[in-house]
Amino acid sequence: PERSARIAKVRPPLHQYIRKLLFSDLDKSTIEHVLRQLRKLPWSECESYLLKCFMKVHRGKYGQIHLIASLTAGLSRYHDEFAVAVVDEVPSSFPENLVLEEIRLGLELNDYGMQQRRIAHMRFLGELYNYEHVDSSVIFETLYLILVFGHGSPEQDLVDPPEDCFRMRMIITLLETCGHYFDRGKYCSYFLISFMVVVLTWCKFEQNSPEDLFADLRPSMTRYSSIEEVNAALVELEEHERTLSTDKTSCEKYSD
Amino acid sequence: MMKDPLARTKVVIRHLPPSLSQSDLFQQIHDRFSGRYNWFSFRPGKISLKNQRYSRAYIEFNRAEDVIEFAEFFDGHVFVNEKGLQHKAIVEYAPSQRVPKPSRRDGR
């Protein structure tokens, strides 16, 4: 039967060059070169395309995501507008795709490709923190957003079916990437205890156990086995903090 | 634990119609908030058969009070596109409060 040949996407040479730099040339030994080439680009013409490519971190190798984070930090000196845009894009890509309205539009949420992409974005955000390009408040806001988003809403099981525990993987990925910087901070302790609630209530299945994460970040923290115990621990931690802060007028700072 | 809300001045307005243009949005913002913001960045949405993405904008206000007033007006504000479809906007503090520093010219 007559069928027209599939038309390959033809990209302008400039876009092809950007893709070659980011998706095939970039590695540990060429990053300086790639950064210089990016700086030489006609920015007014290709800034939005560059942003699009930077957000495709899931296309490259997982172990190389930190190189894109490093490039972002490197470009901020000359193109801070761009570097800020990259950061704005990363946390927003999560609720943007998960918003309940989009479920009603029939978006395939548990599409495998989308999951890979979200995991890659978590890794990217953590690496941006490691390169001192975002501060810890962004990390914690993102962690809490993932933790509470859609919780208790009628669509909860659609957003995150209990057997899937996809959010748990997102949280583990982000903390595996940059959690070692929060090894003592109280904000991270608060978060980890709240996280236990989720693990206990949502995730009835064991395959994504965050046990390694807890062992790395808080080896001595008690693992609670019921919601009541977790709540009691949160209250205790709050009281402990209150006595500490009345002892010395400690300034409110993030724990990094 | 979050940064004092009174210190936060950068907001994101989300769920804007995918077809909304930067000039249409800022005409509406300009009417009420002209001179009260010092930076903005518009991210156009996308309409294709496969997926659609809402438009979004980030705005840095001069004062925290302006943020409140902006949210009172635009949070839940209904934008109507050319086909009569309604989109209800959401205003939130931007997760990252960073705004660009003026970059030096790249000598390359």
Fold and architecture overview:
The complex is a heterodimer of chains A (256) and B (108). Chain A is an all-alpha fold. Helices cover 63% and strands 0% of the residues of chain A. In chain A, helix 8 runs antiparallel to helix 10, helix 8 packs parallel to helix 11 and helix 11 (186-201) runs antiparallel to helix 13. In chain A, 29% of the residues are buried. Chain B is α+β, with helices and mostly antiparallel strands and 108 residues long. Chain B is built from two helices and eight strands. In chain B, strands 2-5-1-8 form a four-stranded antiparallel β-sheet. The longest helix of chain B has 12 residues, at 22-33. The mean pLDDT of chain B is 86. At the A-B interface, helix 5 and helix 8 of A face strand 1 and strand 4 of B.
Short description:
Chain A is mostly helical. Chain A has helices spanning 13-25, 31-39, 43-54, 65-75, 80-98, 100-104, 112-130, 136-148, 156-159, 166-178, 186-201, 211-217, 227-247.
Unreliable segments of 5+ consecutive residues of chain A: 96-110, 249-256
Q: Total helix count of chain A?
A: 13
Q: Identify the CATH architecture of chain B.
A: 2-Layer Sandwich
Number-wise, the strands of chain B total 8
Number of domains of chain B: 1
Helix amount of chain B, in percent? 10-25%
Unreliable stretches covering 5 or more consecutive residues of chain B: none
What's the count of strands of chain A?
0
Radius of gyration of chain B: 15 Å
Structural shape of chain A:
globular
**Largest two-chain interface:** A-B, 31 and 28 residues
Distance between the termini of chain B: 42 Å
